[in-house]
Amino acid sequence: MKGYEIFSKTMEELKLTPMFGNPGSTEIPLLRGVKDYVLTLHDSISVGMADGYAQYSGKPALVNLHTLPGVANSMASIHTARLNHSPVIVTSGQQDSRHAFYEPMLWHDLESLVGNAVKYFYEVKNGEDIERVMKRAYSISMEPPAGPVFISFPMDVVDENADYMNLPCSLPNTDLVDYGAVEKVLQLIMQSSNPALVAGAEIDQFNAHEELEKFASKLGIPVYTEPMSNRAGFNSESMQNAGDLPPATTAINLALLKHDFILNIGGEFTLYPYLPSPLLPGKKVVTVSLTPSYKFGEYITSNPKLFLNELNKFAEKKGDFVRAMDNSLTNLVARERRVMGVTYVLQKARKEFSNYVIVDEAISSSLLVRKNMGYSPRSYFTAKSGQLGWGMPAAAGISLKSPRVLQIVGDGSIMYAIQTLWTIVNYNLPVKILVLDNGGYTILKSFSGSFYPGLEKAPYLTFSNDILKIAESFGVESREADPDLKEMKWLAEGNSPKLLLARVPKTIPKLFI
Amino acid sequence: MKVLILLPPFLPIDEISKIISQILPDSEIITDINFGTKNSEVLVSTTFTLIGKELIDRMPALKFIQIASTGYDNVDLIAVKERGIMLSNIPIANKESVAEHVLAMVLAQLKNLMHFHNEIVKGNWPFLTNSMELMGKTFGIIGMGAIGKKLAERLLFFGTETIYYDIAKLSEEDEEILGVRYASLDEIFSRSDIISIHVPLTDDNDRFISEKQFDMMKDGTIFVNTSRGELVDEDALVNAIKNKGIRACIDVYSVEPPDPNSELFKMNNAIFSPHIAGVTVESQQRFITETVANVLKYVQGLQPLYRVSL
ipTM higher than 0.85? Predict the structure, then answer.
């Protein structure tokens, strides 16, 4: 078999379909056998789609990028996949190795370019490499922490002859439990005067929501969601839900002030911005994770779901925490209605999109998106890196697996990967898009207002685009929300892609301490 | 960086120490101003402690004073200026509290609550009332800063005509959102059923509401002062209460605490509170948060907010 045939056969055997990509001349030789290909009109969109697809399905997804320019264009998205623990197999073409010495156009040392954004890199040397490197990359991408891997295919190598070996492809064992630590954790909880739990993204990744809720309910203690979690945190409807932790050290410390023991299950605290307080001084912190980072406190290497199962066998009542009900929400919605406030818009969205996957890239409104739309299993995704231009591609990728996807995006962030609309329309992906248009980079205005006052008025933080016209030019049915927000129902109707734009207030919220 | 926190002893020091240990563990909290000398670069205090020249002189490394309050009358501004020390207050933490306090006083006046309370306590059961609704009244706000805006927001739901004066007119969009109309001071004094002042005290506005302004007001106007006592000529106010039936709601006084024998306190159609409009459990929490945030800004090398011009 030719190398490119081995490539497509391995793809099919591993069910690595579709391939997301944006090809160039260096990729064409490799693509000759590929049947299931999703075209994106910018390289980074391919990676974002694969990231969403992989996270939602829990399986690796395949991307093909156009050598140096395509990889360089996608670096932010590859880094996001790394931080999202998303098993994305990135492939790219590479210049014909027979004249690589001359550093021809499009040639580059791709390994140095991708650097530590991927956890495995290999440039195939011959036809025999292709099957084995793809299976190795598949396994490594799933090894905790799951993340992107990279395979480079020189143009000439894919025409080499080799046999298809039917090699095995192993999946890593993620069913690891430190049984010896179970009793210790329970003791720490019972000995503590006021313990708290923190739910991290691994709860969603390993589908441990039910186990965590059971544990929290048995103990009767609060569960916070880790700061800026990139996936659904603790079930918002649970009576033990204590809400999201803020991302700066001082604010985290204040939120957890009354607790002396913190059991962090599957969380990797994202910090921003820098504040001079140390992180959780004087507190006992234990993290249970399959991917321990050893950044603070003690670590127990375990699958969160299985570890919680063990804890649940012995857990006893420790507290009587019950979340405070937000009794003023109805009032807030009524007040915000007159100015198309974000909470008003999101509460309307919540009614129509209660069972949808939310992909959040409404940066200055993200806290409100989380609070109003709520967390439930596989219900919420955002970029852990803080990258813009990830959300719409990820929503498109998820929509290949789920027909109910709502992307909530800001007027600033939507412009980073606006061409995704072409892919959404071309493949008739059922993505619904809600744009919260506040006329600029409000997150930066808020940041400036807190730390560099005056700069929030800088003209380069304010702009406007006719997003409705842009979306319509791609063939996406688009409407602007009227004060009654009747269009929210319209947005939810049918499976065709639609966009609703809500002009929310331009007032600058205080988002930083 | 050394941070000294100087607090009055009646505050819950143990609780505050716990919070500080989580924020700036190296800070020192004291309640006694007789501390000899201190090498701290930052001093955090409240309005309850006199920050005079003598105290400042005992802190040779002092570069930044943060007062955890709106007011900073307790700080010797000349000494601070001479030493080139930065001074910040927290002007934004109590705006909701003050706005609600204004409404509480105004509603108490409109609804005759003091009268009813006194009558019932005396064993009477009054059948008649001249209570009025806030809805439909003209509410004049002088000073459309943070507190003025919060007050205007709340008035939206009472259905008042809200007019305002400020040295800086709001944008048309902001006026539309708040449902307010810009008016001259004369119009505010002459047309309003209720007038509330929300301006800082400056060298130029001492007693700026005096006999002339009270003369312009309609009989029975409700007049609210939660800003600074020195903004109002108290003798003129007493005369206006007596002669024009002005209904006063007073939280601040030219001298605090005021003379209990003052003529002002003999007035029946007046409600008083002890300069406490901004003090609520919630506002105290915000003062702590904002104070912490501002000190952290200084500690990490940024310019603190709310700098007092010296």
Answer: no
